[in-house]
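Quick entry between incubations.
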Amino acid sequence: MLLTNLEFLPDTKIIKHIGLVQGSSVRSKHVGRDIMSSFKNILGGELTAYTELLQDSREEAVSRMQAQAEAIGANAILNIRFSTSSIAAGAAEIYVYGSAVEIEIT
Amino acid sequence: MNLTLIVLLMLAAGYFIGKRSEKRHYQSIIVREKELSGLPAIASRMPPEDAMYQQHLVQGNIVVASDYFKSFLGELIKLFGGPVVPYEALLDRGRREALLRMKAAALEQQAQFVFNVKFETTTIGEGWLRSVEVLAYGTALSPKGSVNNATLV
Amino acid sequence: MVHYENRLPPEGINVSRKSAGRIFLKLLAVAVVLVVVLVVVTTVLGSTLAKYVPFRYETQLMDKLELPLRDAGILLDDPTQNVDVTQWLQSLVDELTPLLPVKDDMHFKANFSCREDFNAFATLGGQMVFNRGLLRVMPSENSVAMVVAHEMAHVVHRDPIAGLGGGLASMAALTLVTGINTQSSTVSSLLRGTGALTQRSFSRKMEYAADEAGLSAVAARYGHTNGADMLFRLLSGAMDNDGTSDAVALTRRRLEQFSSTHPLDDSRIAAIETLSSKNGWSMDGKLTPLPFNLRQWMSACD
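Done. Structure below.
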């Protein structure tokens, strides 16, 4: 599955646009990590626990979007966009969406 | 003792009534998605160049409230970490409903496509009064005059 | 020419199929167990460490706090009033002191309060407070001596400072866990409530231990334990005689035992009987009457 945030692919012909696909994931860290991070907030610096959390979340969201694209018979997703929203303190939602397309495979 | 009872009642009400209304909402979403599947919503910014189109900015939004049970469970899950399951359906419903409302607005313009579809998500309220707003927007393309060469499958 | 269509993906990709109800029950049970464990560990840790605080620090702290607390009307009544009652209580304390396993640097101070609630308590620095509401219903000196010895035993066991240390430690731990990122006050108050219930089981243990040490001092002082269970008989009677039927009163008392700091009074009466027979203390004996002027002394409150 080809994933890109380009509008089109330079050398490849797009046969069909087959729909909007989306993936989302809401996750949180356990309270121990939250406590450690709150100490870190006094000193500043990278909150590795949350970097990891958002990255895991993003991976899951992308794989869910990919699962949707595969289910409707696409072989590429163009114009992918990410958005992050905080649904509750300490829990973040990653949302990703794009155009599922069928491209000519050479 | 009374407070515990109120909390239990609110949890039960949130669970049973919230579950039922979620089920109904999904039923209606699935039906309308099929009805509107002839109007493609596309994330791409490149519209077809084979015909003349009128452009309209269209949008659809919805604010979905979390129920007491969902918020309570969300807080509980946050103690342990991991996927916050109760909010998944809430956001999914919001996205799909916003998209459907955007499509309905596009249909009023006799649109054939909606291009450059984007989503915005905001949370409103604190604690158990939390709700999510989802906005879906895009550019609806309606054929100019009666000529239409674009292919609709 | 590119074709455009809108194929619908299947359900269930972005929404987990797990049952929310099941997750809820599981997490709730685990959370309650974890809070109980957390409170037990921090309370044991806090109270054990607190017992290492030298007794003289307790005394110094109370000396500093006494005046502000007295001014605020929180702690004790004016010691210059009710001198007679206070002196009598202090004489009981002095008689009981050699009969308890008191360490060298410990000392006790009896205080009398005009408050009408049925209560007595020991606090930091060997300070003990006895309310008028309790003394006015006591039938004999033996019964009062049991209450005094019980409170002194708390001091000997360092229960006030241990309770403070354990309470502070577990409160800090609970606040840390429930305060971070918790917006729903219901979840945090649920966890705090569980923590408070767990903590009370600690004070119940302390009560039984203080009963035991107090009883042995009373037995040594009077040669018998007659009248020692009066406190609990009065407590238990006070609950029975409020017009509710026996079944209702029993259920309510079971609930109260579960949530109360003090163990159910009937079980403490039974414990006193068991202890007396085990140690060969007679439960019959001549009761020492209360000072003739006690009621008159206490009327200084009015």
